[in-house]
Write a structure and sequence with these properties.
By secondary structure, this protein is α/β, with parallel strands linked by helices. It folds into three domains: 5-57, Electron transport complex subunit B, putative Fe-S cluster (3-methyladenine DNA Glycosylase II, Chain A, domain 3, Orthogonal Bundle); 64-314, Dihydropteroate synthase-like (TIM Barrel, Alpha-Beta Barrel), CATH 3.20.20; 327-447, Rossmann fold (3-Layer(aba) Sandwich), CATH 3.40.50.11600. It has helices spanning 5-9, 25-33, 47-52, 54-57, 104-116, 140-153, 165-175, 190-200, 211-224, 239-254, 276-288, 301-314, 347-359, 376-381, 387-396, 399-402, 418-424, 440-447, and strands at residues 64-66, 73-75, 93-99, 119-121, 124-126, 130-134, 158-161, 181-185, 204-207, 230-233, 266-267, 293-296, 327-331, 340-344, 364-369, 407-410, 429-432. The strands form five sheets. The protein has an eight-stranded parallel β-sheet with strand order 10-9-8-7-6-3-12-11. Helix 7 (165-175) packs parallel to helix 8.
Length: 450
């Protein structure tokens, strides 16, 4: 049972040292009760207090890891219903299902395409996260062979889908050390699946065919038997039903601290859709509300890009803009006489101007100033993008040593900085560029004479 803030306060040192980031121990206790901070933030709580506060410090949704390598999938550990309250922390795992009834060539081709797919978004390289291999054939040997084939061709995490414990056991002999997730334990096979999960130390998915009450009973049984890393499948597949059910699970875990449902959720949008378009829409709904793992049946680059982009937007901290690392970037292959442009480290601003320079065929130097992730006008109005900061960046990156000219182009939206910047950089010619990134090609064609 979760403790109240007052109950938690009794176990704290009551020194009001502020080292936890809160003005008083009581304020920290209230935040801990709301699962808004970790107990480890208090450096002085004693062992007795730690033991007593274990329930309060425990995340309402358990963190579960699938896979054992660098590309492992971590899901769960969420603490809020809505991202603006804090942020969502572990992005939904996007997994592609492969059936063991496909030919070896078809499996190999699919694994190669999906594993090799990647897309660059705001400086990050993103792709699909894993494979779910289903024992569609019903044959243990066929399933094990398919699992071994997939495992030999990819380092992405696996989810093994077999209702027959014998088939699951055969597959685990091939890939048990890779810590795949096991799908799924039901009321009919839970004892055998629990034993397999305990033996290999793998997370176990629990599927219900009779609502959340049965699902909670099964998770309690698995947890009591020693399997702590669980994944939930409430067995709901349609649009409206899945939205309602996944929201109920989230609320019960967070608001009611109902431990039997405090686990990540896995969904299968392809099973609730009648077309590829419907699968895409349902997958998008699941990413937003509130699936931790989404298993799709049809992979296309267009579908993958849509889901990856949506996931990135949802799991970006709304209070912290995506930022580029400040510095001097090369757009194309610039030479000493190439243009030097200045911008902020807001990722969208950077990629807008970088993309326009590339498409216009202008190899350039792009100086990115640290504005704490704010765009040009926002940073300027906040006093984080001024002449002093630009001059400091120019000098700090030794731009003068890399250029055969002394011309620097500032965004047109901050033309007011020109006079001050001329005072800060007396040896440089300050040029005012266009207000919009799309006009940079025409501007350079007309004004860059170097």
């Amino acid at each position: 049972m979760a403790l109240t803030g007052i109950q938690i306060y009794k176990f704290l040192p009551k020194t009001n040292c502020k080292e936890c980031g809160f003005p008083t121990c009581l304020a920290f206790a209230m935040k801990l009760a709301a699962a808004g901070v970790e107990l480890s933030a208090c450096p002085y709580v004693n062992d007795e207090g730690k033991a007593a506060l274990e329930a309060a410090a425990k995340p309402p949704i358990r963190l579960v890891t699938i896979g054992a390598g660098e590309k492992k999938i971590e899901v769960g550990n969420e603490t809020v219903m809505f991202r603006h309250e804090k942020t969502f922390v572990h992005p939904t795992g996007l997994v592609v299902r492969i059936k063991d009834t496909a030919s070896a060539d078809e499996v190999a081709k699919a694994v190669e395409e999906i594993s090799g797919y990647s897309v660059d978004r705001v400086g990050m390289t993103l792709g699909m996260d894993g494979f779910a291999i289903q024992n569609e054939s019903g044959d243990a040997a066929t399933f094990a062979k398919c699992v071994a084939t997939v495992s030999s061709q990819t380092d992405l995490p696996l989810i093994l889908m077999a209702g027959d414990p014998a088939g699951m056991s055969a597959a685990l002999e091939k890939v048990g050390d890779a810590k795949p997730a096991l799908y799924a334990a039901t009321k009919d096979n839970i004892d055998q699946m629990v034993e397999l999960a305990k033996k290999c130390g793998c997370p176990l998915a629990i599927r219900s065919s009779d609502g959340l009450n049965e699902l909670a009973e099964l998770t309690e049984k698995a947890a009591a038997a020693g399997v702590k890393d669980l994944i939930l499948d409430p067995g709901i597949r349609g649009f409206a039903d899945s939205l309602v059910t996944l929201t109920q699970i989230r609320r019960l875990a967070l608001a009611k601290r109902f431990e039997p449902l405090g686990y990540p959720v896995i969904t299968f949008p392809g099973e609730g859709a009648s077309s590829l378009d419907e699968e895409a829409v349902l997958a998008a709904q699941h990413i937003a509300k509130y699936a931790s793992i989404v298993v799709i049946d049809h992979f296309t680059p267009a579908l993958a890009l849509s889901l990856i982009t949506l996931r990135l937007n949802i799991y970006t901290d709304p209070q912290k803009p995506i930022q580029m690392k400040p510095g001097l970037y090369q757009i194309g292959e610039p030479k000493a006489d190439s243009p030097l442009c200045v911008t902020t480290n807001f990722s969208l601003t950077y990629f807008s101007i970088a993309g326009e320079l590339e498409s216009a065929g202008w190899p350039s130097w792009l100086l990115v100033c640290d504005t704490e992730g704010l765009s040009v006008l926002t940073a300027w109005s906040a006093g984080k993008f001024d002449a002093e900061k630009i001059a400091k960046a120019v000098k700090g990156e030794n731009a003068a040593e890399k250029m055969s000219h002394r011309n620097v182009i500032i965004p047109g939206g901050v033309a007011v900085l020109r006079g001050e910047l001329e005072e800060e950089l007396p040896d440089w010619k300050i040029m005012v560029g266009p207000r919009e990134a799309m006009a940079v090609g025409g501007f350079l064609k007309e004004n860059w004479k170097n």
